[in-house]
Amino acid sequence: MNVDKILSLICTAGVIMLENGAEIYRVEDTTSRLCASYGLTNIDSYAMPSIIFLNVFYDNKNYSAMRRVKLSHFNLQKVIEINKLSRSITDKHLSIEELEERINHIENNNNLIKYKSLIFSALGACFYTLMFKGSFSDAMVSFFIGLLLRSFQIIFASKINYFMGYFFSSALISFLAVLSFLFVPRVNYNVVIIGSLVLLLPGMQITNSIRDTLTGDFSSGLSRATQAIVIAVSIAVGTGFTLTLFIGILERGIL
What we know:
The protein is mostly helical. The protein is 70% helix and 9% strand. The chain has helices at residues 3-19, 24-37, 76-88, 96-108, 111-131, 136-156, 162-183, 189-197, 203-214, 218-245, 247-254; strands spanning 41-48, 51-58, 61-68. A three-stranded antiparallel sheet has the order 1-2-3. Helix 1 (3-19) packs antiparallel against helix 2 (24-37), helix 1 (3-19) packs antiparallel against helix 3 (76-88) and helix 5 runs antiparallel to helix 6 (136-156). The longest helix is centred in the C-terminal third of the chain and has 28 residues, at 218-245. The termini are far apart.
């Protein structure tokens, strides 16, 4: 049995989960299940938001694998699929080739991110604006801002770093809200900005930070909390920078 290849595939599964918002304990449990299903013993699975490490014992030898994890936008459907795979594999044993095919399919299936998320981002911005007591005009502006924001993220997410990605996203929202204020009657740009910025808030990072801390993964909890703070700062800087540039125009428009 090619243990090195199995470990590499299981590491890939763990990376997929970490990149798409899974909690640390879930990643470690899932990778341990996958290792055990192929007869590997003395399994040590260690995961953090930026790295995953596996060490197993098979046929009187130790095998190890490690993989670096890059930050990306979340797709919880991939976490669900890897979870299903780890549990179904105990009932129906898969060959290495079948395991590789299933994991590659999950990893490369980006249809939800690229297409369906466009409309859901637009609807999310629209209804959050209504929740913050925005008018119908405000909600419609937010709908199109959410659509353009998600398109921007899909095109440029892999080309710029994490901080700048949120900086430019929040700046784009503010810029489009200012334009709508100038050219669309009775638009409250403050409500439009607030409703649209909800799409960028680090809710997943905060939730996972709390969960990891409560389960004893303090280093991972602190890491995710730091990530949430960095995202919040980049959003604030991007929004403030854009509004500062247009403050004179906004004041004249209000007057």
